[in-house]
Automatic annotation (TrEMBL):
It comes from Geojedonia litorea. PANTHER family: ABC TRANSPORTER PERMEASE YTRF, MEMBRANE COMPONENT OF TRANSPORTER-RELATED. It is found in: Cell membrane. Residues 26-254 form the MacB-like periplasmic core domain. The keyword Glycoprotein does not apply. This is ABC transporter permease. Residues 296-410 form the ABC3 transporter permease C-terminal domain. The lineage of its organism: Bacteria, Pseudomonadati, Bacteroidota, Flavobacteriia, Flavobacteriales. The keyword Cell membrane applies.
Length: 418
């Protein structure tokens, strides 16, 4: 054991001397490993951080939540011309579903706004491009919103289309600053609405954050919003009761809604049932693809880094041929020479990998400061993965040079090195 510790110490010394004596050559050789490790771990850290942020944003949502609308939230085999002819999902559809479909925990109706957002004005302060969500009161239970100040609008206010509004945290800050917004009147759609609630701060997410949104009763907007011949574009948001068989629930929903719309057997649906779980599965697929591309691209950098390590080890064997011959003539065994150069290659690669990890750590800190609520995290697992990859690169890159050094004839090695 002591012999191997001494061997490791000597190999470490040789590696450090290589760094000191051939700074530029060693730097260029390790640059590939550093860039490769940096690329892989940076991609993994970004994807992990994004995935964690998505999970946090979806933590208050039931993944079985269903969006019934004329639009498909994912790829579909239905041709575009056929989808364009689907009727809009309107308020009366929502009333039918909420009254006739069993096992519904909450059912809401929302109006889609395909424009660039609305402007909200309070006295001399205006915030432009705000996403206004005209939606019925049930969204409070579906998304499990938390109102920090004030309250959400009630069922009666939702049904009557009362001129009230609930603001997201950041929107309220930008509009009112330190002023208490509750009870104040803001102008939206050219009309006055009373602020009755402010949501808690949710932070940035892959979906639109509630912090920058505002919520108003759908019936308030229906008074003046002009839709096409089929009505205003909208969707029914359905949250089934817990423990319900989702497959069976979807089937019941589909059959009842087909009957309501007068579709006969054999006729295709003229609506889509989009599940939130399907959206999250699609996002997981995108994240997986990003991971795969990151590995492929970074793999080329690691390959270049491996060649660099192998190159510097071949040069090291050439420079120390005489010393290898002397060691073998004094009784050093082949495995001692093999391990000596193998350790040296691993140490060099690990140094490059540690530099890459340090750069990732610095980058995540800087990125977290610039992105505000979105926090990039370098996990312990990713750090260990980077360390392990560095060791593996050193091992693979150093095998052939180490074997060639261990097989040198001592006499020929001394003669060649003189």
């Amino acid at each position: 054991m002591i012999v191997y510790l001494r061997l490791f110490k000597e190999s470490f010394s040789f590696a450090i001397n290589a760094l000191r004596n051939n700074k530029l050559r060693t730097f260029l050789s390790l640059l590939g490993v550093t860039i490769g490790i940096f690329s892989i771990i940076a991609v993994l850290a970004a994807v992990d951080s994004l995935d964690r942020n998505i999970q946090e944003n979806l933590s208050g949502l039931d993944k079985n939540t269903i969006y019934l609308t004329k639009f498909s939230f994912g790829p579909t085999s239905v041709p575009r011309w056929q989808r364009d002819n689907y009727p809009q999902t309107v308020y009366t559809d929502y009333e039918f579903v909420s009254r006739n479909v069993p096992d519904i925990m909450a059912c809401a109706y929302t109006i889609f706004d395909f424009g660039g957002g609305e402007s909200i004005r309070y006295q001399g302060e205006t915030v432009a491009g705000v996403q206004i969500s005209p939606i019925t009161y049930e969204i409070y239970n579906i998304n499990e919103f938390v109102v920090e100040r004030g309250r959400f609008y009630t069922e009666s206010e939702s049904a009557s289309g009362a001129p009230v509004i609930v603001l997201g945290y950041s929107l309220a800050e930008n509009l009112f600053g330190n002023i208490n917004p509750l009870g104040k009147q803001v102008r939206v759609y050219g009309r006055k609405l009373t602020v009755i609630g402010i949501l808690k701060k949710y932070g940035v997410g892959i979906f639109d954050s509630p912090d920058e949104q505002a919520f108003v009763p759908a019936n308030f907007v229906r008074r003046f919003k002009n839709g096409g011949p089929d009505g205003i574009p909208g969707a029914i948001i359905i949250r089934p009761k817990k423990g319900v068989d989702i497959g069976a629930f979807e089937q019941v929903l589909k059959e009842k809604f087909r009957n309501y719309r007068g579709l006969k057997a054999g006729e295709p649906d003229n609506f889509f049932i989009n599940k939130l779980s399907g959206m999250t599965d699609a996002i997981d697929g995108i994240l997986g693809t990003m991971n795969a591309f990151g590995w492929v691209i970074s793999g080329f950098s690691l390959l270049v880094g491996g060649f660099g390590i192998a190159n510097i080890m071949f040069v090291s064997v050439k420079e120390r041929t005489n010393l290898i011959g002397i060691q073998k003539s004094l009784g050093a065994k082949n495995r001692f020479i093999l391990l000596q150069f193998l350790f040296e290659a691993i140490i060099l690669a690990v140094i490059g990998g540690l530099v890459g990890l340090a750069l990732v750590g610095i980058t995540t800190l800087i990125a977290s400061n610039f992105t505000g609520d979105f926090e990039f995290v370098l996990s312990f697992w990713n750090m260990m993965l980077g360390f392990g990859l560095s060791t593996l690169i050193g091992l693979i890159s150093g095998v052939i040079p180490a074997i060639s050094a261990s097989k040198l004839d001592p006499v020929e090695a001394i003669r060649t090195g003189m």
